[in-house]
Structures are given as structure tokens and as C-alpha cells.
Write a structure and sequence with these properties.
Blueprint (H helix, E strand, L loop, with lengths): L6 E6 L3 H9 L5 E6 L3 H9 L5 E2 L3 H6 L3 E4 L3 H11 L8 E4 L5 H12 L4 E2 L1 E4 L20 E5 L6 H13 L3 E4 L2 H27 L5 H7 L2 H7 L6 H9 L2 H23 L3 H22 L1
Parallel strand pairs: 1-2, 1-4, 2-3, 4-5, 5-6, 8-9
Antiparallel strand pairs: 7-8
Helix pairs in contact: 4-5, 7-11
Length: 291
């Protein structure tokens, strides 16, 4: 396909998600351009063929883009859109990879729409406890779910453009209301991270017993606490920007924890076994759908 018939995608930020997206779109129907604050990151992205071209300043990157994917932390997504709102051409499409959608949409959509630019939120359910370009993979998005959060006013063609881009990277798409998205990921991502951190603190924080407890940590502890190794600042920002949904989900978690504790306290082991069986059945059912 001649380059003149290809859409230009600007990737803003070359961390794990941005770098992986650039790698995934290599050889597809897009011209890949990009920008990152650090000049070293820009040089590495070009050297490693993450993008076809890097720009030295963000204004040039977004002004040349048909689609812009902002792969920055949540506060920086909102700041970037506010600062460069007038740099995009009319009709351009902007999306992001932020883990909390409602707050971003409320901050960004009005600013961009006043300048004739379309915004649609994206959230790829991909990644790991590792971060940075070094952890990037060309197949990171293969079979991963990407939530799209269009508003009722979002044109169908805009949704299709962003959907097609993520599908080109190998992802599956689900459209969802931004509020429902935030409560969903609070349950499936944000609170699990908090729980992994609490488990780690509970097991290892006591200095007097830490050595012997470390010797008692095996596969189960490693698997259930893996995500506690993720970047703390990033997770602080995610939780801060999805506060209401996280608090609601924590309340549900506390109710379940209390129920387990009461069963054990009262020696109600048959009831405890029923809960363990229910959890096993639910997880096994989920896994069967993933495979």
C-alpha cells in the first residue's frame, strides 16, 4: 500500500505500551511517527524501528497525525491535551491508554472538541509488572482486550478507525461506557494490585520474621503478589484517578474477607469450603474462556 494511502499514527511516549504499539503496527497500514520527552528515548525508538520517524517536538508530531495515541501517565495525558489542543488538525482522532477513563474524558473531550478534534478513550488490558521500553514486545496486544469508551456523540467512523488500529496490533475490542469501565477495572485490576501489595506487606514487612518467611515463600506467594512489583507512582496515580470506583470495590472485598474470617472463627469449615469451591469454579470458567 503506498504511503500516501496510509493513515499516520503518532505515538506519544515510548514506555512499555507505546513502544509495544509501535512494534505491533510495523508493516501494517500505518505510517508510524512518534515523540517522547527524552531525546535518548526518541533515538532508541528510531534505532529499534518502533516508529518510522521521530519528531523533536510534540507540536510537529500531533499536527502530522491522523490518529494520536497518548501513552503517558494519567495526569500527563490531561496536561498534554490541554497544552497542545490547538496543534492537531481538524478531524484528527486522539486516544490514550489510561487505566481510568471517566476523569480523562471529562477533562479532555471538551478541550479537543472545541478545536474540531475527536477524542475516544482506549484502555488496553495488557502489560506486566515491568515497565519501560526494555520490556516492550511486538505481541503484547495479541488477544488482549482493549476497552473503547466512546461517548454518544462519537461518530461511528471514529470508533471504527481506533478499533481497526488496535485490531491491527492483534487486540480484541469491547465498547463500554466510561463509568462502567472504571468500576470494571477497579474490580479486575486496581483492587487486585492493592491486595497483592497488602499480602506482600503482611508476609514480609516484619523484620524479625522476614528471613524465615522469605524461605516459606514459593510459587503461590510469587503468583499472587507478582503485580506488587509494578511501579508505585504509576499505581498511586491510577488509584487516585479512579478513587470512587476503587473505594466501592474495596468495600465489596472487605465484606468477602469478613465472611471468610467469620467462617474460620466459628469453625464453619463446610461454609468455607463452599466459598473456596465457588472461587475455583469461577476462575476455572474464566480460564476456559481465555484459552
Amino acid at each position: 500500500m503506498p504511503a500516501k494511502n496510509k493513515k499516520t499514527v503518532a505515538i506519544i511516549g515510548f514506555g512499555l505500551l507505546g513502544t509495544s504499539l509501535g512494534m505491533a503496527l510495523k508493516g501494517k497500514k500505518y505510517v508510524r511517527i512518534g515523540w517522547s520527552r527524552r531525546s535518548e528515548s526518541r533515538k532508541q525508538a528510531l534505532k529499534n524501528n518502533v516508529v518510522d520517524k521521530v519528531l523533536e517536538n510534540p507540536e510537529d508530531a500531533v499536527s502530522n497525525a491522523d490518529i494520536t495515541v497518548i501513552c503517558l501517565p494519567i495526569p500527563m495525558i490531561m496536561e498534554f491535551c490541554a497544552k497542545f489542543a490547538k496543534s492537531w488538525k481538524k478531524g484528527a482522532i486522539v486516544t490514550d491508554v489510561g487505566s481510568a477513563k471517566e476523569k480523562i474524558i471529562k477533562a479532555v473531550s471538551p478541550i479537543l472538541s472545541r478545536n474540531g478534534v475527536h477524542f475516544i478513550g482506549s484502555h488496553p488490558m495488557a502489560g506486566s509488572e515491568q515497565s519501560g521500553a526494555e520490556a516492550a514486545k511486538a505481541d503484547l496486544y495479541v488477544r488482549a482486550m482493549v476497552f473503547l469508551t466512546p461517548s454518544p456523540e462519537t461518530p461511528t467512523k471514529v470508533v471504527k478507525e481506533i478499533s481497526d488500529m488496535w485490531k491491527s496490533a492483534g487486540a480484541k475490542i469491547m465498547e463500554i461506557d466510561s463509568v462502567k469501565h472504571d468500576i470494571t477495572v477497579a474490580h479486575t485490576s486496581h483492587v487486585p494490585h492493592i491486595v497483592a501489595s497488602i499480602l506482600t506487606l503482611t508476609a514480609l514487612k516484619d523484620g524479625k520474621t522476614r528471613a524465615q518467611r522469605e524461605n516459606g515463600c514459593a510459587g503461590g506467594f510469587r503468583d499472587t503478589t507478582r503485580i506488587a512489583s509494578s511501579a508505585p507512582q504509576m499505581w498511586r496515580e491510577i488509584i487516585e484517578n479512579n478513587r470512587a470506583a476503587v473505594l466501592k470495590t474495596l468495600f465489596e472485598f472487605e465484606k468477602n474477607l469478613k465472611s471468610f474470617r467469620e467462617n474460620i472463627s466459628k469453625a464453619e469449615y463446610s461454609e468455607l469450603e463452599k466459598k473456596l469451591q465457588s472461587a475455583k469454579d469461577l476462575r476455572d470458567s474464566w480460564l476456559s474462556k481465555k484459552n
